[in-house]
Amino acid sequence: MKKVISTVAITVFFVSFSMALVVGSHVPESFSDWRFLRAHVFSDYVVYELMQTDMAGFEVKVVQTGPTTGLKIGFFSRPILVVEDGPNFFMGLWKDVLIIDTGTAPEPRLLSLYYIPEKRLVHRDSYFSPIVIDGERLLYYRDIGLRFYDSDNEKKLPEELRFLEENLVSMLKDQPYLGVAISEKVYLDLLIFELVNTGEYVIRYVQ
């Protein structure tokens, strides 16, 4: 059954240097912060974030867990995985899956998942919060790419989303200086990396 939720709060996500970990992801055994370099220590991996000088965010790399006495120097160890260039922020680790947020703009933002043993990107999508891990699934709200800035917008709703029109027009009239975006609640299976659509939609304000 299709559902719709209208959000009345403006979704504005300002990136800071203290990105919260995804709810349900593994809790680090320890965490060290040397201002320009941070280390999240897990049982099998250490996730390093090195502050970048030419852009916001961090260079993110994963190395095998070793002696904690050499944790800072461990950044220079041979990496198991290096995340693609960009303004990256570590969001969490679940088993062998690394979760990364990329970008500096307000939501929607870019979500990337890497499977560490195979050193590869397994999923990438544009998302709205909240984002949580529920069992073996990652829950988030997927941006479906529709934007509306006035009730007479030429970009009409697709037929399958016409049931959203009343809510959408109402929100545009309430806040005429903001746009609205439509997102769908989805689940990503973290074992086989398959996406499941729920048919539950959220309309929210965007800048």
Word description of this protein:
The protein has 207 residues and is mainly beta. It has one helix at residues 165-174, and strands spanning 3-10, 30-33, 37-41, 45-51, 58-64, 81-82, 88-94, 97-102, 109-115, 120-134, 137-148, 179-189, 195-206. The protein has one domain (3-15, 24-206). The chain contains one helix and 13 strands. The protein has an eight-stranded mixed β-sheet. The chain has a five-stranded antiparallel β-sheet with strand order 2-3-4-5-6, with no helix packed on it. A hairpin with a 3-residue loop joins strand 2 and strand 3. The longest helix has 10 residues, at 165-174. It starts with a strand and ends with a strand. Residues 7-17 have low confidence and may be disordered.
Question: How does the overall form come out from the CA principal axes?
Answer: elongated
Number of domains: 1
Number of strand elements: 13
User: Which structural class fits the helix and strand makeup?
Assistant: mainly beta
Nearest-angstrom radius of gyration? 19 Å
Helix content: under 10%
| Poorly predicted runs | 7-17
Instruction: Provide the residue-averaged pLDDT.
Output: 88
Instruction: Describe the largest sheet.
Output: 8 strands, mixed
N- to C-terminal separation?
Answer: 30 Å
Order of helices and strands: EEEEEEEEEEEHEE
Count every helix, treating DSSP H or I runs of 4 or more residues as helices: 1
| Strand residue percentage | over 45%
Record the strand order, biggest sheet.
Answer: 1-13-12-11-10-9-8-7
